[in-house]
Amino acid sequence: MNLDPATDRHPFLDGLPKRMLIGDRWVAAASGKTFETRNPATGEVLASVPEGDAEDVDRAVAAARAAFEGPWRRLKPDERQALMFRFADLVDAHWDELAWLDTLDMGAPIRHTRGSRRHLVGLMRWFAGQATAIYGQTADTSMNGSMFAATLKEPVGVVGSIIPWNGPLWAMVFKTAPVLATGCTLVLKPAEDAPLTPLRFAELALEAGIPPGVINIVTGFGHGAGAAIAAHPGIDKVSFTGSVATGQAIVRASAGNLKRLSLELGGKSPHILFDDADLERAAPAAAMGVFANAGQICTAGTRVFVQRGIYDRVVEAMAKVGDGLRVGAGTDPDSDIGPLVSPRQLDRVLGYVGSAHEDGARLVTGGTRFTDAARAAGNFVSPTVFADVSDPMRIAREEIFGPVASVMPFDTLDEVVQRANDSPFGLGAGVWTRDVGRAHAIARRLQSGSVWVNCYNQMDPSMPFGGVKMSGYGRESGPQQLDEYLHVKGLWIQH
Ligand code: NAD
Question: What family is this (predicted)?
């Protein structure tokens, strides 16, 4: 990838204003409207993209339906699989370019966007492998031997996906792989703050030979294209990743045709450190569990519960990690943490810092915006540690989506389980202890879609990921995700 170091220009940007993909066409919005996407490190406009709305979603759904009932459906699983492997190879070959686009559009350090290659290309290949492994079962019914009873697994049809900005490349892989493996088709709306990677990713799908209409991208806003996808009667299922409030709006909007839903929503994940933990590993993991991607990760372990005997040491160690991180433009290979995605997000995070001060939490480090010449135009905030936070404070209850840790002491296992579960969310949870019995016991009691013991934020294509409670329902990754895109049909043949 030849990024011009003088201007940070990506070759893909030179083809812009980029249009959106409907069927085999790169088109403008029917309304002719466009919107700008900016580099969050500099505030510069990167590109203008179409502002799609309901009319464009209609066109995309028609293209997706035609592909579903036409060329895509006629392909045998092994033929679909071959295309998926080719697509994965192409994404692998263009990874650097895709990583740069993510970095420019949403700010994550290039080291990190590059670094997710093994996992994400691996996930594409894992799902390609599954394309020929989808089958039902035969049943021994209680009727006489003249009955043949079996289940068939069939694709749900046209899927609508609505994704957030905090990891566009991640979201594209997670939303396309199961669609392709099961033989569904897709209408996807990228986040308005980071629409560029999804467009390039879809371009590569066409190049790999995925038939036109299988993947359609409608760029636009939530109230326009997003709401139209949620309500569209021609969409059979919506897979949404984003905030709880939007998830609730989608549930309401989907009622018209009772479409299937999977919702990957927010979190306020507990990260629990017992006093027998290996602190050399646990304290940095607790810090990076909050600071990675500038805190813009749904599983950020933002409620750090520390057993009282090691509390002061952990607070100090976390602050040290935060102070040592290099906060800068994602395009700088030395940056550990990039900017927040938008000025709106910056205001939101600083608002939470203000609320913590008002509520009486103790600021240990951070809590400010960087205003030096190199960073003043971007949305840079320092890694922040608040100690002596109490459970009812807003920073301990609400999702901040910024690099702000709330550190709280606890005494007993029962107490920490009760406090960790006292949250509307249930996405991830971390536990550090050397006591195997305690690890098993607490893992079962935590109300959470994933529990990581002596590690944090681990993911693998073979493992499911998702939430309980208001963190949503449905699973991504793992065999469980395939079932989200399949109907099971009962077949009875009397002979
Ligand atoms: P958001 O809910 O504001 O937006 C997400 C997407 O929904 C965007 O594409 C937006 O345009 C669209 N949208 C907004 N209003 C809509 C509506 N009424 N109808 C349909 N679509 C609409 O979320 P965000 O700020 O982009 O992302 C941050 C949130 O995403 C956080 O809460 C985070 O925890 C969550 N998230 C969850 C996961 C997960 O896997 N659980 C992963 C990443 C992010």
Answer: Belongs to the aldehyde dehydrogenase family.
